[in-house]
Amino acid sequence: MDEEADAWFDRELAGCSLADERLNKRLRKLVAQIGSAMGESIPLVCQDWANTKAAYRFFSNDRVSEADILASHFQSTRERTIATDGPVLVLHDTTEFSYQRENSDAIGITKSINSGRDKAGRLRSHTVCGILMHSSLAVTTEGLPLGLTAVKLWTRKKFKGTAALKKKINPTRVPIEKKESIRWLDNVRQSTELLGDPGRFVHVGDRESDIYELFCAAREAGTHFVIRTCVDRLAGDGDHTIADEMDEVAVKGLHCIDVRNNNGDPDEAVLEIRYRKIRVLPPIGKQKRYPALTLTVIHAEERVTPKNRKKIEWKLITDLPVSSRPDAIEKLEWYALRWKIEVFHKILKSGCKAEESKLRTAQRLTNLISLFCILSWRVFWMTMLNRSAPDAPPTLALTATEIGVLDRLVNDKPKARKTLSHYLTKIARLGGYLARASDPPPGNTVMWRGLSRLTDIALGALVGGEFVGN
């Protein structure tokens, strides 16, 4: 099986260095097995008890951690970023994996939620068993996902409600090192250290990342950020706020974007754009520790409130210069790409079905989720390659065996160009994509179905070739 050495996971995991070579081989085998049947259980993808038991041992091995599993993928991400030109966006977001367990002690809990009222009318609540993941995904400004740059997985030993915390202490006075929010700073620092050339990267986050310490951490690292802000911080000399200054700013231009209303119908939104460079102050309780920063605030708001959807109102803050309407639109478009990390999380949950695993401990689950991260990235990468680099050679993403199998399985149209897009469409057709002239480009769902079928068929072709050869 000489062709197997050219498998995508061998290239992606080339830098893998677990505790011993047997673990390295097992990781590659698990990526191949689970990738060939995404969303299926471990016993099904392993086929026999010996391989299933070996998989369970791997995920529970104390010498294996999520950092070990992802280390080689992080290096491959770095290589892909070096091979690209222009700015690269690093998207940050947190997601939650919930599990149904009678006893949550072995995994942990993520939050407490309202369960309604009992027969006596008293409010009830229950804890949710699960794992939290904060991930960072590098993408080009065209939206092509280059790979993960940092992942942090954790559970909460004891849930403490935010409301209860606020009754005892002002959260803004708690050092960032003692709060869960430190994950944002950790991932920015880890991503910057991994990728190098910090001035080329722009870290993008939603309102949860509106943390003054993050602004300072990015400045210290020499990297940049575009954050959706939700805090009306003190500005200038401290006698007014950012909102006070932005109220004085005239509209600098308009920007039209395509959206969909609550019924899913296409619509157009006209945004009024305002921006200003502002001296921003840290929270009062932290002004001795952190300096004031000169940042640019961008507001984009619809002129009128639409009838069938929520009004668009974005407030961004960035350390990048904004001196014109095109500059402001560019930063808005970069922030708009943030939803791609949510698509990545959706593939993890819908494609890999990470929340349906029956593994019993947090350690085993975090190791499995880390492996799923590599598979989910590949599905997302190949889906977007079909749109952003359609004329690239097929060998960029596929092996010679896979290309040969696709040529045999899926008929070509007359005079079809043998580009990467041509073969990725063939994979999507294996997953149920009809490829009609009016159809949009294939999405993640048909891609992961097609990739699973292709992996199985390619393996069958290699095994069959061995038998015929003998």
Automatic annotation (TrEMBL):
It comes from the Bacteria. Pfam families: Tnp_DNA_bind. SUPFAM superfamilies: Ribonuclease H-like. Gene3D superfamilies: Tn5 transposase, domain 1, Transferase Inhibitor Protein From Tn5, Chain, Transposase Inhibitor Protein From Tn5, Chain A, domain 1. Residues 6-64 form the Transposase Tn5-like N-terminal domain. NCBIfam families: transpos_IS4_3 (NF033590). This is IS4 family transposase. It comes from Bradyrhizobium cytisi.
